[in-house]
Write a structure and sequence with these properties.
There is one protein chain. The chain is mostly beta strands. It has one domain: Methylamine Dehydrogenase, Chain H (7 Propeller), CATH 2.130.10.10. About 0% of the residues lie in helices and about 40% in strands. It is globular and about 55 Å long.
Length: about 425
């Protein structure tokens, strides 16, 4: 497949696949019989793809698995694979992007699949939240799935733990929430303007480390919870960053504790909600300050922000002075989105001196974090702009198309996989 190279610093493009015009979102991986399999959830298309990336320079698209529920307002954008089990997420679609009416039918919760035969997943079970579904989840091959999930009686997603020791009959074993979320317990309704997610919500994924779990809470920041008793999670500490940091929503997108250091990364999510059918994609006239931060968690009762990462700069020769003022704002604009998350997975890279991030219109950014007080950008890759819309709102998006890097995964060989809002899979390698 023909490869069009983007703009790079200390990064090389190894391979590309158009994924049959089904742009991807979150990815997962497993190695079976020396074959490297990449599993991809999709932003617009309901279902999941399987690719063979044993040779990253020539990725092979194997199959697309349609969402078996088939309901039009189902979002299937997140996925995990570990120890021969695949977890796929379902939630209500975001109507501003897709134009679905609020009462359109949707499926929700998680499907549990057997993927020991890597090319032929077998669905085993379905766990439902009883609400709007789940968003970003965590599964590392053990007994428990850690969920950012809706729940009856609560505003916004909370932390819920599901036991899949019997994957055909998953059972909730524990949950935790902010007191401000518990409407059924008498907390006042936060009022209009916050949408279905609420004034406070767990974006996720809940990220376990030892007997603690690290939570990314919109409206608050980083929250640490004790799960030594999986049935009764208990609050340990928090770092309030919202306000002032965090931009629009979620103000805390990801919290990632480093496996080998008493440090955690936290990010907000940079974006502009698009104006539909008005000839431009301006959304908010200003892009608020979004950030990637380094947090000292040596005292988990008092996590402390010790550094904020440098804001990406346009490459030399660019026609704009910063990413926030570019004319092509894309669907999501500018700011951090996802980090590479190792999830204790044997087939994924897990370094304590480097992180990888997607930054929407600023592409992929790689940072040296060997000195936690002085994170440095060492590499980037900005994909070429798409040539066509792979999906559209029924009323149309205005403005010009722009490359918008969504999610990222790095395997233990060092290959970097990046999904895009309107185009296929880029496979990269950092030359540093």
């Amino acid at each position: 497949m023909k490869i069009e190279k983007g703009i790079a610093k200390n990064m090389e493009l190894v391979g590309y696949h158009d994924m049959e015009d089904k742009p991807g979102m979150q990815m997962a991986m497993q190695v079976v019989n020396d074959r490297w399999y990449l599993y991809i959830a999709h932003w617009y298309h309901r279902g999941w793809s399987i690719m063979d990336v044993t040779d990253p320079s020539a990725p092979k698209y194997l199959k697309f698995i349609p969402d078996p529920g088939g309901k039009p307002a189902t979002f299937t954008i997140k996925i995990q694979v570990a120890n021969g089990i695949m977890i796929t997420q379902m939630q209500q679609r975001i109507s501003v992007f897709f134009g679905n009416p609020p009462d359109a039918p949707f499926d929700e919760g998680i499907y549990i699949w057997d993927v020991k035969d890597p090319e032929n997943p077998k669905r085993l079970g379905h766990w439902k939240t009883g609400s709007i579904g789940t968003h970003r989840n965590y599964y590392d091959g053990g007994r428990y799935v850690h969920l950012s999930a809706g729940c009856p009686g609560f505003s916004g997603n909370i932390y819920r733990i599901v036991d899949i020791i019997d994957p055909t009959h998953p059972v909730e074993t524990g949950r935790w929430w902010l007191p401000e979320q518990y409407w059924a317990g008498g907390v006042p309704n936060p009022g209009p303007g916050y949408g279905p997610l609420g004034k406070y919500f767990l974006h996720g994924p809940p990220y376990p480390k030892g007997d603690k779990v690290y939570l990314s809470y919109h409206g608050v920041g980083l929250v640490i919870v004790d799960i030594s008793d999986i049935t009764l999670p208990k609050f340990v500490g928090k770092l309030q960053t919202s306000p002032p940091l965090g931009g629009q929503s979620p103000t805390c997108h990801t919290v990632l504790p480093l496996a080998k250091r008493k440090l955690a990364l936290m990010t907000s999510e940079g974006r502009r909600i698009p104006v539909i059918g008005q000839g431009s994609l301006q959304g908010s006239p200003l892009i608020p300050l979004n950030f990637i931060g380094m947090v000292d968690v040596s005292d988990e009762t008092n996590p402390t922000l010790i550094a904020i990462f440098p804001i990406p700069e346009p490459p030399p020769g660019s026609p704009y002075k910063n990413f926030s003022e570019t004319k092509k704002v894309g669907v999501y604009g500018f700011g951090p989105h996802n980090l590479h998350e190792p999830h204790n997975h044997p087939d994924l890279e897990d370094r304590d001196d480097r992180i990888y991030a997607t930054y929407f219109s600023a592409g992929v950014r790689v940072y040296d974090i060997s000195d936690p007080y002085l994170p440095k950008e060492i590499a980037y890759y900005i994909p070429p702009d798409p040539k066509k819309w792979a999906w559209q709102h029924p009323a149309g998006f205005g403005g010009d198309l722009r490359a918008t890097s969504e999610d990222i995964l790095v395997d233990k060989r060092g290959y970097i996989y990046v999904t895009e809002m309107q185009q296929g899979l880029h496979i990269l390698r950092c030359t540093m």
